[in-house]
Write a structure and sequence with these properties.
Radius of gyration: 17 Å
CATH superfamily: Aldolase class I
CATH architecture: Alpha-Beta Barrel
Number of strands: 8
Structural class: alpha/beta
CATH class: Alpha Beta
Number of domains: 1
Bound molecules: 1,3-dihydroxyacetonephosphate
Shape: globular
Largest sheet: 8 strands, parallel
Distance between the termini: 13 Å
Strand order of the largest sheet: 7-6-5-4-3-2-1-8
CATH topology: TIM Barrel
Amino acid sequence: MRKKFVAGNWKMHGSLATNAALLDGVRAGVASLAAEVAVCVPYPYLDQARGALGGSNVAWGAQDVSEHAQGAYTGEVSATMLADFGCRYAIVGHSERRSYYGDTDSVVAAKFEAAMKANLVPILCVGETLDEREKNVTAAVVTRQLDAVISRCGIAALAKSIVAYEPVWAIGTGLTASPEQAQEVHALIRARVAREDAGVAAGLRILYGGSMKPGNAKELMAQPDIDGGLIGGAALVAADFIAICAAA
Ligand code: 13P
């Protein structure tokens, strides 16, 4: 049985003052819950997360990572630097990185590999745009995004990672994929992995992300192939994030 996992993606939000209350609230609110919980914070706040969450059952991570190990890459942050800050997770391939910053499938695969090499757990995001859904190419898009990582890193690497299905049209829009729509894509992802390795597929945690809220979390996470959530907006409100973790 796969243990449920809920990760908050704060995106570019927060300040030292607001984070302090949020981190303390989450730490206390999920202390007795069964789900695994993590928050992915902006780089400058990794040290604050480490201070506030150390010794708790909430892990912390970053929202991106460089594909390079080190060198003249102004503005970038390497996986070993993140590991130095006690990060366990790094999101790779978030749709906002893919669409605003040009992260191609091959860059995402390289970032995935860099994270693995530093013993971070990559959270690989995949998902189709509204246009792609309407053109009925969701399966092809998600498979292409997944295959880029499988062909670069191998199927065994996926066993040490987490996948998040985030339909782009549901991110920050208040539109949520129905449990049936989400389940269909989660099952497709698992089946694709199972074609390579049934054991890896059975153990792989696949999160749903896209306007997950306290009111819809339970129904989504009750689907057989939905193993948790990657939460944006609702992760910025301690009570909402805790309620989603409780639903898991
Ligand atoms: P929202 O929960 O705000 O839709 O964001 C989802 C997301 O992009 C998490 O990575």
